[in-house]
Amino acid sequence: MAAQDVGIVCYEKGGVSLRNIEIPENAKIGLFIGSEGGFEPSEIETLEENGVKKAWLGDRILRCETAPIAATAIIMFLTSNM
Predict the structure, then answer these.
(1) Using 50, 70 and 90 to split pLDDT, how confident is the model at 26?
(2) Quick one: three-class SS letters along 60-75?
(3) Dihedral class, residue 68 (left if φ above 0, else alpha if ψ from -120 to 50, else beta)
């Protein structure tokens, strides 16, 4: 995996809003999206142990095809890249 400044995992069972994750200007962002069925708890634990922050995209469960698009658009908006 390439070096990143901020790691974010979109987790359907909780986390903070993307707007509450500090993303420095010009940061390299690693975005983790689970497959259909989501992440195993052990996978989330391993990510958190490595400094990845859990983010929650709301009550709706997004398909694995649309979650990356939604998360990327939100991050681009929050970092003034749109």
Answers:
(1) confident
(2) CCCCCCCHHHHHHHHH
(3) alpha
